[in-house]
Amino acid sequence: MDFNVKKLACGAGVFFTRAVQFTEEKLGQAEKTELDPHLENLITRADSTKNWTEKILRQTEVLLQPNPIDHTGARIEEFIYDKLDKKLPSRTTNTELLGQYMLEAANEFGPGTPYGSTLITVGEYQKRLGGAERDLLQASAVGFLTPLRNFLEGDWRTISKERRLLENRRLDLDICKARLKKAKLAEAKAAAEHELRVAQAEFDRQAEVTKLLLEGIGSTHLNHLRCLQDFAEAQATYYAQCHHHMQDLQRELSRCANSISTPHSAPVVCPDPVSSAFLSGPPSPGASVSSLSSQRPLAMEQTQLPVTGTRKAKVLYDYEGHDGTELSLLADELITVHTVPGMDPDWLIGERGNQKGKVPVTYLELLS
């Protein structure tokens, strides 16, 4: 007990002495040891990295989750799962919820009515858009947000701790310098010189430790660069999927509108949406290709379309043809593509062996 009291009193004395030195420096009444210019630059760079990482992280969270506190208690749920160190279950997105409401409304209004059937069509596509959004949220959280958060909660805390130690060592060094200047007797000067040498050695050692940590900010930038590329790729995939879904939806609605405008027709029901397996996983190689080849009109097989330029293309994502005029694709395969006069610029004619059909441009990487 006596030892603890002495240690506490000693610590309080050191704290008070440092506080006095710090105050006198701010008032210009005491000299301050300046850090090495290289170390100062590293500190400035680290502070900038920390500040901008916080801003980018916060704004990305706002972009991906504009209204985190909603009627489902999302923020509370995330907090509980984080404290329990468990994975947060996948949550329905707002777009998926909108699609579900449309489907429920269609059942109540009657799926055989024009309005009901259109609600079913639009609702199914809203659910697919929501699924693509959920994939983007998951990919961004794992590949982008988590590394930024780990830096702020891990590496930066270590750096901050070592910087505080460096500041304390600097204050101790300047206190020893001031004592040496005030010492009059030879014995007091010798003791002050010894304290100064010890303080200088501790300061230099802590400066090296801090410098090594700050130089690691360069590796942090490289890691964040890779994460940023992954985030951009996830966004590109998401927007490509959204673009294609909306193109499909427009075609479905156009067919529905044409059916409604046709006179003396049977009760109008919009065509069923394409299969939801479109983005849920890779299609079976035999089934999709064989069914496509069996459904393709004979005229497509026999007619040679005028070619305006043939190129090789790499398929970026799996794609399942929606009718006999489209060609199903598998990710990473190579096909030959070309266009024809008057064709929709969002589509190309793709060829794989004896198979031919339309393919969406957004699913391809054109090769030279």
TrEMBL record:
Top-level division of the source organism's lineage: Eukaryota
Protein name: SH3-domain GRB2-like endophilin B2b
All copies of domain BAR, residue ranges: 24-262
Record-level GO BP terms: membrane organization
Upper classification of the organism: Eukaryota, Metazoa, Chordata, Craniata, Vertebrata
Example of a GO cellular component annotation carried by this entry: cytoplasm
Organism of this sequence: Gasterosteus aculeatus aculeatus
SUPFAM superfamilies registered for this protein in UniProt: BAR/IMD domain-like, SH3-domain
PANTHER family per record: ENDOPHILIN-B2 ISOFORM X1, SH3 DOMAIN-CONTAINING
